[in-house]
Automatic annotation (TrEMBL):
Cofactors named for this entry: Zn(2+)
Keywords: ATP-binding, DNA replication, DNA-binding, Helicase, Hydrolase, Isomerase, Metal-binding, Nucleotide-binding, Primosome, Zinc
Listed name of the protein: Replication restart protein PriA
Annotated Zn(2+) 1 binding sites: C437, C440, C477, C480
Organism annotation: Agaribacter flavus
GO MF: hydrolase activity
């Protein structure tokens, strides 16, 4: 009897054996990596076969049987299965859940996997052609389509583009044609490849390009290029060589960075060979890209984090653009970092990988310093543009209007009068970060999170930015009943309102997650900015994400201090990246740019270093600080977080974990300490940080600890999770 091992998407760290009944149809085609339907504790679940020949100790006749084979071919190739097993180990996540996280949503369900189908039109059976031709003699277009179908059937999309949807519909209604599903023919993207070079590379670009082009096996290149230095141009030129070898390219971009402009740029250079993969697509569209990549129907896929799991027919290069971006790290479920996976895939496929950024992560810089990565730099802006100048503005004791100093308002007036755009970064969305009673000082607070509500004027409510809880704006203080309530601090809405009134001849636009709920809306806004419909751009960190705003000449950071003070040891790194990327939006064309940072701490040494010496120098100083403190990337961390309404349970669980981990002498255990958000939705949140100088050691002690923790009596009564190489301690 045949017994196979199946990984099931449940939170258990084990796989299960099933019999394969002889009578199952298509039993001979069963392969590793295919999905099967299996019974599992009174339910039917979809699992993935991960071993075809599972030796088993239990009585085979007692094993349950596979009920159906769902696929015609494996949904996970052997390369991706190896990746999945590595992932599950590396992030200490159950294999079944891991493998399913790698699939497009449609394939996580029962849906059968068949080859990519296409709808075709053909002449309906039993149609008397002569009669039909006669009946169509007055409808020229319909006649033409009908005639064309004499010779050969047409795909529905071809028919619609050539003859219009109405024509197709008309023939359908007359019952003269019918539809047929067929396997889509392979699209030879290589035929659509055309190369339109825009300009010649400058010296630094040329060095980077030729260094990368010389390499056809695995190597990771860290391309550190200041903002606007032409990193994308380097990508374009090295991709050219890969495409000419008939190999495909995967480009990973941050969630918000994937705009139609990005795709356009690649499309214009190489022709219609580009597919995009992002959260704005429907499940069917995502499955279609999955097929296209797998079949080799497209040459380039540009996508966000989860695209790192796409199958490819013949992948020749991976690029991670803005490699420092937080959105590459998944923050729930399987907490993977797409950059780490990109490295793993490149090694296994023996292909080059490029990590590009103006503000590389300290992890990648460290890898470049220790020669694990090749370091390439672009130190100047491309073309005629130069980097903007950065200035600190001490606002201590200054009169501010809506948080803005008069000197800045005057500078704005000058730039606006010259027809330029200005950009203002505000670190908080909404109208104001808190609502306070003028009488008793009470702050309106979300009870579940013990955190101040943010006031949203446009939505007309108070919102908790931790849990999403909403409330009407009260007319009087919930504590003392006084009606004199006032707001404290500024959010994007308030700054927008103030500047619209102050500069009433110009148009303001707000770019934050409230105003850009849909991807289409963000694209619309970006387009109207580039068409100069708006002159004053106000936004949160979305503004810093790789956009090209050639008319921005003045940038303002309203409150630098809010970025400086945080318990997270990466706060300084993130502040430097944000400020540098924001500044990078200014002065990108022929006009010189200028950026002002308002602060009460102008003498802060980190800020001084960043402003006077730039990110390259600043990041090297940070790296030295990390070395001295033995923090990542000089050591490795794991996070164990526990949450419950009962503090005693949380502490008992974490203290148990601590006592267990304390026996391993080469690791340090810090905590239990409250998370930055100590309370969220009524649950108390605490964590342990486990740190070691050796990644392998850390992994193995965490593996041992997990076995004990899974069996702990509180394990199923509280929420808890492990995050390897955590990025976020909130
Ligand atoms: N060799 C070159 N000669 C002239 N112009 C160039 C050259 N390379 C790039 N450019 C232009 O410079 C601008 C910035 O280039 P690009 O967008 O590639 O920079 P980037 O480093 O990717 O930018 P960022 O990281 O800031 O988004 C673009 O308008 C591009 O067309
Ligand atoms: Zn809340």
């Amino acid at each position: 009897m045949k017994v196979v091992q199946v990984a099931i998407p449940i939170p258990l760290r084990k796989q299960f054996n099933y019999q394969v009944p002889e009578e199952l149809p298509n039993i001979l085609s069963l392969k590793v990596g295919m999905r099967v339907l299996v019974p599992f504790s009174n339910k039917k679940l979809v699992g993935i076969v991960c071993d075809l020949d599972a030796s088993t100790d239990v009585d085979e006749t007692k094993l349950k049987s596979i009920e159906a084979i769902l696929d015609e071919f494996p949904v996970l190739s052997s390369h991706l299965l190896v990746l999945g097993v590595w992932l599950a180990d590396y992030y200490l996540h159950p294999l079944g859940e891991t493998l399913f996280s790698m699939l497009p949503a449609k394939l996580r369900k029962h849906e059968k996997l068949t080859e990519l189908n296409q709808t075709y039109l053909k002449i309906a059976e039993n149609v008397e052609r002569k009669d039909a031709l006669l009946s169509l003699r007055r409808a020229k277009k319909q006649l033409a389509l009908f005639r064309a179908l004499f010779d050969h059937s047409l795909s529905l999309s071809e028919a619609k583009s050539e003859y219009s949807t109405q024509t197709v519909k008309a023939l359908e209604e007359k019952k003269l044609i019918e539809y047929e599903e067929r396997i889509a023919p392979k699209n030879e993207w290589q035929h659509a490849l055309s190369i339109e070079r825009a300009f010649d590379a400058n010296v630094e670009q040329a060095i980077a390009i030729s260094t990368i082009n010389k390499c056809s096996t695995y190597a990771t290149f860290l391309l550190e290029g200041v903002t606007g230095s032409g990193k994308t141009e380097v990508y374009l030129q090295v991709i050219e060589a890969v495409l000419k070898k008939r190999q495909q390219v995967l480009i990973l971009v941050p969630e918000i960075g994937l705009t139609p402009q990005t795709a356009d740029r690649f499309q214009r250079r190489f022709g219609e060979i580009v597919a995009m993969m992002h959260s704005g697509l429907s499940d069917s569209q995502r499955l279609c890209v999955w097929h296209q990549a797998r079949r080799g129907d497209v040459g380039i896929v540009i996508g966000t984090r989860s695209s790192v799991f796409l199958p490819f027919e013949n992948l020749g290069m991976i690029i991670v653009d803005e490699e420092h971006d937080d959105s590459f790290k998944q923050q729930d479920g399987l907490r993977y970092h797409a950059r780490d996976l990109a490295v793993f895939r490149a090694v296994k496929l023996n292909i080059p990988l490029i990590l590009g950024s103006a503000t590389p992560s300290l992890e990648s810089l460290h890898n470049a310093n220790t020669q694990k990565y090749h370091h390439l730099t672009l130190s100047n802006r491309a073309g005629n543009a130069s980097l903007p100048s950065q200035h600190l503005l001490n606002i201590t004791g200054q009169q501010l209007q809506c948080g803005i100093a008069q000197g800045i308002l005057d500078k704005m007036a000058i730039q606006l009068a010259e027809g330029n755009q200005v950009l203002i970064f505000v670190n908080r969305r909404g109208f104001a970060p808190s609502l306070i009673c003028h009488q008793c000082g009470h702050v309106e607070t979300c009870v579940g999170c013990e955190s101040p509500f943010t006031m949203h004027k446009i939505a007309g409510n108070l919102q908790c930015h931790r849990c999403g809880n909403q409330r009407y704006i009260p007319h009087k203080c919930s504590q003392c009943g006084n009606t004199d309530l006032s707001t404290e601090g500024q959010g994007t809405e308030q700054v927008e309102g103030f500047l619209s009134a102050y500069f009433s001849n110009y148009s303001c636009v707000r770019i934050d997650s409230d105003s850009t709920r849909s991807k289409a809306r963000l694209n619309e806004i970006l387009e109207s900015i580039n068409n100069n419909k708006h002159q004053i751009l106000i936004g949160t960190q979305i503004l810093s994400k790789g956009h090209h705003f050639p008319n921005v000449t003045l940038g303002l950071v309203l409150n630098l201090d809010a970025l400086l003070f945080s318990e997270d040891f990466r706060a300084a790194e993130k502040m430097g990246q944000l400020i540098t990327q924001l500044s990078g939006r200014a002065g990108r064309a022929n006009k010189q740019g200028e950026v002002w940072l308002q602060t009460h701490q102008p003498q802060h040494p980190l800020v001084q270093d960043l402003v006077n010496n730039g990110f390259m120098s600043f990041s090297r100083s940070l790296l030295e600080e990390r070395r001295a403190a033995n923090l990542p990337p000089f050591s490795f961390q794991a996070l164990l977080r526990a949450e419950s309404q009962h503090l005693d349970r949380v502490l008992e669980f974490l203290n148990y974990a601590k006592s267990m981990l304390a026996q391993f002498i080469n690791a340090k255990v810090i905590g239990p300490l409250p998370c930055v958000m100590e309370k969220k939705q009524g649950r108390l949140r605490y964590q342990l940080v486990i740190q070691s100088d050796h990644r392998g050691y850390l992994l193995s002690i965490m593996q041992q600890a997990l076995i004990e923790l899974d069996n702990h009596k509180l394990s199923s009564r509280i929420r808890w999770l492990v995050d390897m190489q955590p990025q976020d301690f909130s």
